Structures are given as structure tokens and as C-alpha cells.
């Protein structure tokens, strides 16, 4: 299992994945980053509040 990246690093990696893939799923991010889905959902809420993504059921889309 991967070591849990610190929040700013994880946010950057989520934004990178959004840019490359156009959509991210919380379950896949949690598995890939070695954190809980609750942690990813919290990250996605923070990114959405900053206007950096749009929340959708199960994940997020680019803004």
C-alpha cells in the first residue's frame, strides 16, 4: 500500500488526474492513494469549494 500523501500533495495529484482523465472516482483515488474514501470526499469538497473541481455522485469533474 502507498504511503498517504500529505493533503496539499494529494490535492495536487487529484487536480492532475482531473486534468488528464477528465473525471475521477473517489473509490479509485482512495485505493490509489492508500487513504479512506471519506478522506478523498473531504479533499474533493475542499477542492470544489475553491472552484477547482465540480462534485458529482461518486467523484468529481473538472470545473
From TrEMBL:
<keyword id="KW-0805">Transcription regulation</keyword>
<dbReference type="Pfam" id="PF08220">
    <property type="entry name" value="HTH_DeoR"/>
</dbReference>
<keyword id="KW-0804">Transcription</keyword>
<dbReference type="GO" id="GO:0003677">
    <property type="term" value="F:DNA binding"/>
</dbReference>
<dbReference type="InterPro" id="IPR001034">
    <property type="entry name" value="DeoR_HTH"/>
</dbReference>
<dbReference type="InterPro" id="IPR036388">
    <property type="entry name" value="WH-like_DNA-bd_sf"/>
</dbReference>
<keyword id="KW-0678">Repressor</keyword>
<dbReference type="InterPro" id="IPR050313">
    <property type="entry name" value="Carb_Metab_HTH_regulators"/>
</dbReference>
<protein>
    <submittedName>
        <fullName>DeoR faimly transcriptional regulator</fullName>
    </submittedName>
</protein>
<keyword id="KW-0238">DNA-binding</keyword>
<dbReference type="GO" id="GO:0003700">
    <property type="term" value="F:DNA-binding transcription factor activity"/>
</dbReference>
<dbReference type="InterPro" id="IPR036390">
    <property type="entry name" value="WH_DNA-bd_sf"/>
</dbReference>
<feature type="domain" description="HTH deoR-type">
    <location>
        <begin position="7"/>
        <end position="62"/>
    </location>
</feature>
<dbReference type="InterPro" id="IPR018356">
    <property type="entry name" value="Tscrpt_reg_HTH_DeoR_CS"/>
</dbReference>
Amino acid at each position: 500500500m502507498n504511503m498517504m500523501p500529505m493533503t496539499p500533495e494529494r490535492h495536487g495529484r487529484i487536480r492532475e488526474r482531473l486534468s488528464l482523465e477528465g473525471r475521477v472516482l473517489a473509490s479509485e483515488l482512495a485505493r490509489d492513494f492508500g487513504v479512506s474514501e471519506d478522506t478523498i470526499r473531504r479533499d474533493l469538497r475542499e477542492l470544489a469549494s475553491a472552484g477547482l473541481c465540480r462534485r458529482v455522485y461518486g467523484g468529481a469533474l473538472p470545473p
